[in-house]
């Protein structure tokens, strides 16, 4: 069998698959999001690397490659662990959802030319559970478009079912494949896959227009208040505050007491911390820095409590129009 010639990013991926998870995570932390995506995708592509190909990629790692016999097996656990350590669970899920091969994720194949209107027409007369499973397979941007095209009375129920989805049976996937077979074609059913969930529902609502969010969320709260609250919390996390422009972030900071801000900033990286401090006076920023240094190590629960308090303040200010958060496309009349 001829030895495969790897590209530059694939060579890097082979090395990443050979080093320890902590070392790999440390490398991933130095890369930008697009580089992480490309490298992660390449790691799946080289999962079946042979010993001869390892020697070709990097001769001085042959001995180490021989000791690591798991390279040719399912790479998902190792890649997921590295991504989670490097990026945190939310960002890792976002990256993995876009680079995991469809056969590993158990996704329903959809042709690129099948647009939101065509998908909506296929499911608008189906049971909401069928619609929820199919929409959960889509990219959040496309899913939001499909949701908005569906009949308005159907929308809150579909979002609720997406948030509550449990592992999907092969029978349910077969039903969807049969429904789409005329346009997409069928594929073998996996043993059951996890689709949807609160975070997936939140991503869809984030990509929906403001008017859709304002209409769907109150109705969803009447169906299931706890699910609606969980989706709202997932839609708005502390990292979202970094998307505020200087003016709006400054307004938010002026509504936060110094103690809460100090505790919250103990749990973010230096760049995020400086983003907040840059929107304060130099004197106030120095005060926060001094206070963080004096306090030393802090319990994670205290940090998260402070961050949640700031998120609540930001949501309140955004709701009454005091600050403007980035989100789904606004509506114009």
> How many individual β-strands?
0
Gyration radius (Cα, Å) is 23 Å
What share of residues are in beta strands?
A: under 5%
Q: Which residue ranges are poorly predicted, with pLDDT under 50 across at least 5 consecutive positions? A: 60-73, 102-107, 183-194, 328-333
Number of helices: 21
Query: For the terminal residues, how far apart are their CA atoms?
Result: 63 Å
The helicity comes to 55-70%
What do the pLDDT scores average to? 75
Structural class of the helices, strands and pairings? Answer: mainly alpha
Largest sheet: none
Instruction: Give the SSE order as H and E letters.
Output: HHHHHHHHHHHHHHHHHHHHH
| Mass-distribution shape | flat
Name the features.
333 residues, mainly alpha, 21 helices
Detailed description of the structure:
This protein has helices at 8-18, 21-29, 33-45, 51-57, 62-67, 76-87, 89-99, 102-105, 116-123, 128-136, 140-149, 155-163, 170-180, 198-207, 210-223, 225-235, 246-254, 258-265, 270-277, 282-295, 300-319. With 333 residues, the chain is mostly helical. The chain is flat, with a radius of gyration of 23 Å. The protein is 64% helix and 0% strand. The chain starts with 7 loop residues before the first helix and ends in a 14-residue tail after the last helix.
Write the layout of secondary structure elements.
Elements: H1 8-18, H2 21-29, H3 33-45, H4 51-57, H5 62-67, H6 76-87, H7 89-99, H8 102-105, H9 116-123, H10 128-136, H11 140-149, H12 155-163, H13 170-180, H14 198-207, H15 210-223, H16 225-235, H17 246-254, H18 258-265, H19 270-277, H20 282-295, H21 300-319
Helix pairs in contact: 1-3, 2-6, 3-7, 6-7, 9-11, 10-12, 11-14, 12-14, 12-15, 14-16, 15-16, 18-20, 18-21
């Amino acid at each position: 069998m001829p030895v495969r010639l790897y590209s530059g990013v694939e060579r890097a991926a082979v090395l990443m698959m050979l080093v320890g998870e902590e070392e790999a995570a440390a490398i991933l932390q130095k890369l930008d999001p697009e580089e992480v995506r490309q490298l992660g995708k390449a790691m799946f592509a080289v999962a079946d690397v042979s010993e001869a190909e390892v020697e070709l990629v990097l001769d001085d790692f042959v001995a180490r490659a021989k000791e690591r016999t798991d390279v040719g097996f399912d790479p998902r656990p190792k890649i997921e662990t590295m991504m989670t350590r490097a990026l945190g669970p939310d960002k890792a899920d976002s990256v993995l959802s876009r680079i995991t091969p469809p056969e590993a994720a158990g996704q329903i194949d959809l042709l690129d030319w099948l647009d939101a209107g065509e998908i909506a027409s296929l499911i608008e007369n189906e049971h909401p559970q069928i619609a929820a499973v199919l929409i959960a397979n889509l990219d959040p941007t496309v899913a939001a478009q499909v949701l908005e095209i569906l009949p308005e009375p159907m929308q809150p129920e579909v979002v609720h079912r997406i948030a509550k989805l449990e592992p999907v049976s092969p029978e349910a996937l077969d039903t969807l494949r049969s429904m789409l077979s005329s346009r997409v074609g069928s594929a073998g059913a996996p043993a059951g896959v996890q689709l949807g969930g609160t975070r997936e529902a939140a991503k869809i609502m984030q990509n929906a227009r403001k008017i859709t969010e304002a209409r769907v969320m109150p109705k969803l709260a009447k169906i299931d208040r706890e699910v609606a609250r969980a989706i709202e919390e997932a839609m708005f996390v502390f990292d979202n505050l970094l998307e505020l422009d200087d003016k709006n972030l400054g307004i938010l900071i002026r509504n936060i007491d110094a103690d809460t801000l100090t505790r919250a900033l103990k749990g973010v990286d230096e760049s995020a911390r400086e983003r907040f401090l840059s929107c304060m006076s130099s004197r106030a920023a120095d005060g926060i820095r001094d206070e963080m240094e004096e306090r030393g190590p802090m319990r994670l629960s205290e940090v998260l409590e402070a961050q949640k308090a700031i998120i609540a303040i930001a949501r309140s200010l955004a709701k009454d129009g005091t600050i403007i958060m980035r989100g789904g496309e606004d509506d114009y009349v």
